[in-house]
C-alpha cells in the first residue's frame, strides 16, 4: 500500500543545510492504522507531506499501490492524490466563502462525480452534521469544522487518509469525537489511516506507533 525506501528531506538554512527527515524505510499495509507520535519539529508533518506527494523528498522513493510517486509529473501526481489520498489538516483548511456542503462538493465536482450533491449529503450524514450543511465555516465550532474537513477528505473514497494533528486545535471532548470518527472510517471503509500527533491518547488508535524525534524514527511499536 505505502512503501518508503531511503526517503529523506533536507532544506537550505542560510549558508548550510538542515536535514528535517533522515533516511527512512517504511511499509504500511492496506487498512492499517498508523500513529506517528513526537513533539513539534520531530519530522511528523514532513513525513506525512512526503507520503501525500505534497512535497518531494531529497532522496529515496515513495510507492503508493506500487506506483513510484517520486517519478510522476505534477499532473499525474495530482491525479493520484485526488483518487487515492485524503488529507486532514490541523487548521481544517476549509474555504471560508463556501458552506459546509459546498466545501465537500469541491473535490466531487473536480472529479466530475455525477451525483455529487447526493454524495455530499451522505457524507454530511456520516459525520453527523446533516443539519449544518448550509452554514459557513465561521458559523461552525472547531469540532464541526474538523468533521467537515474529514467528510471532504473522504469525498473521493480514498484508500488512504493522512491526518496531521487532527485534534490539535480541539478540546478533549471534540478531540474524542474525531478519534471515534477516524476509527469508524477505518472499520467501515477499510481505509488506511496514518496520523501525526503529539497526543498520546490519539496515538492509541494506531495498530502501529512510530515514535519520532529530530527527524529520526526512534522506535516502532505494534499492538
Structural class category: alpha/beta
Structural Rg = 17 Å
Q: Give the overall form.
A: globular
Assign the CATH topology.
Rossmann fold
- How far apart lie the N and C ends? 20 Å
Main β-sheet: number of strands, strand sense, barrel status? 6 strands, mixed
How many beta-strand segments? 10
**Helix share of residues?**
25-40%
Order of helices and strands: EEEHEEHEHHHEHEHEE
Any idea how many domains? 1
Strand neighbour order, sheet with most strands? 6-7-8-3-9-10
CATH class descriptor name: Alpha Beta
Annotated CATH homologous superfamily: P-loop containing nucleotide triphosphate hydrolases
Mean pLDDT: 94
Q: What would you say this structure looks like, in words?
A:
The protein is an alpha/beta fold and 223 residues long. The chain has one domain (30-54, 82-222): Rossmann fold (3-Layer(aba) Sandwich), CATH 3.40.50.300. Helices cover 34% and strands 30% of the residues. It is built from 7 helices and 10 strands. The strands form 2 sheets. The protein has a 6-stranded mixed sheet with strand order 6-7-8-3-9-10, sandwiched between helices. A 4-stranded antiparallel sheet has the order 2-1-4-5, with helices on one face. A hairpin with a 2-residue loop joins strand 9 (208-213) and strand 10 (216-222). Helix 3 (100-110) packs across helix 4, helix 3 runs parallel beside helix 5 (142-154) and helix 4 crosses helix 5 (142-154). It starts with a strand and ends with a strand. The mean pLDDT is 94.
Amino acid at each position: 500500500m505505502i512503501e518508503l525506501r531511503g526517503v529523506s528531506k533536507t532544506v537550505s538554512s542560510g549558508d548550510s543545510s538542515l536535514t528535517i527527515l533522515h533516511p527512512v524505510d517504511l511499509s504500511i499495509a492496506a487498512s492499517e492504522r498508523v500513529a506517528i507520535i513526537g513533539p513539534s519539529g520531530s519530522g511528523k508533518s514532513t513525513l506525512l507531506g512526503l507520503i501525500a506527494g505534497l512535497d518531494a523528498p531529497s532522496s529515496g522513493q515513495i510507492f503508493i499501490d506500487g506506483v513510484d510517486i517520486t517519478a510522476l509529473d505534477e499532473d499525474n501526481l495530482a491525479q493520484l492524490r485526488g483518487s487515492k489520498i485524503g488529507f486532514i489538516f490541523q487548521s481544517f483548511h476549509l474555504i471560508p466563502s463556501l458552506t459546509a456542503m459546498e466545501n465537500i462538493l469541491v473535490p466531487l465536482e473536480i472529479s466530475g462525480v455525477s451525483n455529487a450533491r447526493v454524495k455530499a449529503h451522505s457524507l454530511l450524514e456520516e459525520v453527523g452534521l446533516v443539519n449544518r450543511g448550509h452554514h459557513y465555516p465561521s458559523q461552525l465550532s472547531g469540532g464541526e469544522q474538523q468533521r467537515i474537513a474529514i467528510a471532504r477528505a473522504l469525498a473521493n473514497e480514498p484508500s488512504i487518509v493522512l491526518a496531521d494533528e487532527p485534534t490539535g486545535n480541539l478540546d478533549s471532548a471534540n478531540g474524542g469525537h474525531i478519534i471515534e470518527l477516524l476509527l469508524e472510517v477505518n472499520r467501515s471503509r477499510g481505509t488506511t489511516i496514518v496520523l501525526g500527533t503529539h497526543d498520546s491518547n490519539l496515538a492509541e488508535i494506531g495498530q502501529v506507533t512510530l515514535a519520532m524525534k529530530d527527524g529520526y524514527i526512534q522506535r516502532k511499536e505494534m499492538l
